Amino acid sequence: MKLSARNRIKGRIVDVRLGTTTAHVKIDIGGGQVITAAITNEAVDEMDLTVGREAYAVIKASDVMIGMD
Which CATH number describes the domain made up of 7-59? Predict the structure, then answer.
């Protein structure tokens, strides 16, 4: 599969938490950094996302927000 998104970060799944309809999948990308993706429970099942598997965090955003205290 080819993707237009250029921000593809390889890591290892460290946590999968299913909710009512949405799951949160955490991917450890090294250096103490973890990326969390919110995807459907159906996608988790279809992709067989389980702890320990390698996966990519694919980031395609049209906006970047900045916050300050």
Answer: 2.40.50.100
